[in-house]
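Reopening this one. Same input as before:
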Amino acid sequence: MNELQRYGRVFLTFARNSLVRDMTFRANFVLQCVSSLGWTAMNVGFYLIIFEHTTSIGQDTGWDRDRFFLFIATTWFINSLVQAFFMPNAQEFSEMIRTGGLDFALLKPIDTQFLISFRKVDWSQLSNFFAGGLIAVVSLWNLAHREVDPMIPSALTVALYVLFLICGVMIMYSLMIALSATSVWLGRNQSLYNFWFYITNFSRYPMEIYNHGWGRPLFGLFTFVIPILLVVNVPARILAKPLSPRADWEWALVAWAAVVTVLSLLASRWLFRKSLLSYRSASS
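Same output, byte for byte:
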């Protein structure tokens, strides 16, 4: 418990220092927030245009407008947390290796992976988190006040949603730290952000759209090998659709998401520690 408290205090110090740094250049911070919110607004407009021509995403999938916007809100929740707390540090890891900054991190009396993962916080990225919250509230309100088949989430539903939202963040983090660890062998891994963007694009849509025809190989790959489809789909399905009745395969998907979260964290931890064994100081 004392160890957890110590790490908690260190993280709060990192977060406070990052906020002070962001507030030093307030105009830049505001512009970054406005830019992120502008991107979010354009996405909302884009999907509103789509739903003027269709009633759901995919035939007989159940993802109508309000449920799909809950899906999109879940995407923003997860991506904003990952981009705020992990992306800035992952992008700098290769630079630390190249310049020898990792030497000083290894000398610190604290877990190296923790230090690498949480040194900086990009607070402006959380603007999309609050935008997602607004979209989720509006969508839930619309679902609860429908004349036909109204839906009000239970306390259990909300608790499971939050739990698997955290699982989604952990899966994303595991993928990111694993990609960062390859910088030890590659020297510079500047394609990290591009690869991250391509991967997260697959998670932005309901998994049903991939389970047909040519999409089935992608469905299998991104569900069981690189389980990126579980990140958003599992918590979004829990919140947007009733817990009962629920098909057996959906509960199996939820269980698989829990297992994958643990496996991803363990695998990324192993890969990160393995990469440190191959690290050679910039001065050596």
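So the earlier flakiness isn't reproducible anymore. For the record, The mean pLDDT is 87.
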